[in-house]
Prior knowledge:
This protein is mainly alpha-helical. The chain has 2 helices and no strands. The model has no long low-confidence stretch (mean pLDDT 85).
Amino acid sequence: MYYHAVASVFSNAIWFLTMKEIVINDFSLDLFIPYTFGTVAGSLTGAKASMRIEKWLDAKADSK
C-alpha cells in the first residue's frame, strides 16, 4: 500500500501542475498534438518503470 500511496501522490501532483500550466497559458488546439504525445509517452514510461520496480522487488499478485 505504501508504494501505491507514494505513486498516487506523485501522479496527482504532476496532473495538478499540468492543469495549472494549461489554464495559465490558455491551452489552444495547436498544443493538442504535443500534449497528447507527451502524456502518452509519460504514461508508457511510468508503466515501464513500475514493471521494473515490481520485477526488482519480485512482487507477485495474490489471488486471495
